[in-house]
Amino acid sequence: QVQVVESGGGLVQPGGSLRLSCLASGKIIGINAMGWYRQAPGKQRELVARITSGGGSNYADSVKGRFTISRDNAKNMVYLQMNSLKPEDTAIYYCNAGLYTTRWSDYWGQGTQVTVSS
């Protein structure tokens, strides 16, 4: 059974940092792009950052210069380092991965809550 599981969320004060981790596990033959999305209350889910299998990345304008996405292909993991956090970063953060098992499919994690508040 293939799973995508996030960890690392929590409560942090404005200006603080958090590091999110995401592990893809199971009978995975290949991994394509991996990314982080977020959904705040009353808003649509939006792309935060995405990284290709070759390491190319792109970011939402709202997080450029503050967030950094990285991945460890040997461990099937993707990370999101979040610095200079703002209250508007508060959301549920979801990991997404393009995985090849018997075919290519998109997989989503259950999400991890990030709350930025004093």
Question: What do you see in this structure?
Answer:
The protein is mainly β and about 120 residues long. Helices cover about 0% and strands about 55% of the residues. The strands form two sheets. Strands 2, 4, 5, 6, 9, 10 and 11 form a seven-stranded mixed sheet that branches. A four-stranded antiparallel sheet has the order 1-3-8-7, with no helix packed on it. The chain is globular, with a radius of gyration of 14 Å. It starts with a strand and ends with a strand. The model has no long low-confidence stretch (mean pLDDT about 95).
What's the structural blueprint in terms of helices and strands?
Blueprint: E1 3-7, E2 10-12, E3 18-25, E4 30-39, E5 46-51, E6 57-59, E7 67-72, E8 77-82, E9 91-100, E10 104-108, E11 112-116
Parallel strand pairs: 2-11
Antiparallel strand pairs: 1-3, 3-8, 4-5, 4-9, 5-6, 7-8, 9-10, 9-11
Instruction: Please bin the fraction of helical residues.
Output: under 10%
Q: Termini separation (Å)? A: 40 Å
Order of helices and strands: EEEEEEEEEEE
Report the sheet with the most strands, covering strand number, pairing sense and barrel closure: 7 strands, mixed
Q: Per the principal axes of the C-alpha atoms, what is the gross shape?
A: globular
Radius of gyration computed on alpha carbons: 14 Å
Topology, number of strands: 11
Task: Report the average pLDDT across residues.
Answer: 97
- Give me the secondary-structure category: mainly beta
> Poorly predicted ranges (pLDDT <50, ≥5 residues)?
none
Question: Helix segment count?
Answer: 0
Give the DSSP E fraction (strand runs of 2 or more residues): over 45%
